[in-house]
Amino acid sequence: MACGRAETNIMAMLKSNTIFRVHELTRMLEEHYRHSITILDKAVKVVQKPEDEIHMTRHIRYRLRIRHAPNRKTEYLTFYCKISPIYLLRITPIITLNLLMRFRKEIYAYKVMIPNMDKFQKERSQITLRDTDLFSNIFPKCYGARLTLQVSDAPDSGSALVLDDLPQRGYVNMDFRNGIDLETMKSMLRLLARYHGTTLAFKYVLPYKFDEVIDPCLKWFNFAPDSYVCVPSEVDYLRKHILKTSFKTRIDVVDRLMQFSLNNMTQPTTDAWVSVCHGKFMLYNVMRREFDVPKFVEFKIIDLQHQVRRHVLTDVILFLMTSCPPNFTREQCDIALYWYYEELFNNLRRYNGVILTEFKKHEFKYEVRDTFKREFVRGLQMLRFVCCKKIHEDKVRSLSTWPRYDLREIESCIDYNLYYRRLQEVLVNIFDHDIFDL
């Protein structure tokens, strides 16, 4: 019933002025290509993510035939239009505001943050950069966005974000339920290091501009629950499930670590390492594409609505806790962290003004350990989401208030066989292998 209602709402939006019309698309594409274009044909379709996805986001897929004015060349163009989540009429007003503000953050990420990072790289890098080295190449191409139909900066039912249609270009979702192999982990950590390295360098070289331009793109609002706040009931919930694993005999150690994490999640972190953090860097927020000639794999980071100003190693810890392969050893973890550090340091030293002594290699492991202790509970939280089955729309109220959701409702979405297996693997990696030097 809920899905049918949402589908009806979207179709109504298609017939109204809340979705881009031809003249708006033309203006947007002319701004993107920087020359005149003509839209010859347009096809529009409502799509949603595959059945095995834990997301419930719907998109509008546009397929256009356009003609470029300079050379009169004709091409087909396919892209996604992510629409405002306000069509979910069953949720409460406060949660609607929460979702809209996150959507606003993603629009600002593509329209403000990413272009500024590209400009910074071109102007300040001490080495010549290829287009593939630019910050924007880490994400889907953005053709344009609209925050509102009104004269304001508050998102509404007209909010829309137009992005490259990655599935049509051969990109596929990662196997986030079973983890990845070591080589794929190496590539993804290097991608993450490029992301963090550029934003950290921007903060050091242009600190005032970072505070004035980038930081506003990362802020939460008072009525939007802070994703970094954890409630005691969540710790009790995690403890109950840990007691069902072989680690029940070591629950006292787990209790101490969870209590430390709960008490220190929102504490200030070392300023040198604080910059733009993705917030949910896990396999379901990365897509990959394999190329045969030349042989390589390309990744794209998606879903930027959870970006926040925080210790960048937060992303690394969440990634390792939710995405590492089975039987992950201490030695493999050390190698993975080494890959990340080397790529991060190489990115930082491209720019004059970065205080490289703030990022000494022998101090890196202490930063990893301290960040892990703070993020331990959130890592276990997100592991549960990784182990979810398809989440139906009637669960959106619970998900939208994460982590303040109704735990009884969300339990019905979890694949517990998978969850206990992954939970056991994570705890073995942490305590038996001592991969975070506890």
UniProtKB/TrEMBL annotation:
UniProt xrefs under InterPro entries: CHK_kinase-like, EcKL, Kinase-like_dom_sf
Annotated ranges, domain CHK kinase-like: 161-350
Origin superkingdom: Eukaryota
Pfam families: EcKL (PF02958)
PANTHER family registered for this protein in UniProt: BHLH DOMAIN-CONTAINING PROTEIN (PTHR11012:SF55), PROTEIN KINASE-LIKE DOMAIN-CONTAINING (PTHR11012)
Protein known as: CHK kinase-like domain-containing protein
Species of origin: Rhynchophorus ferrugineus
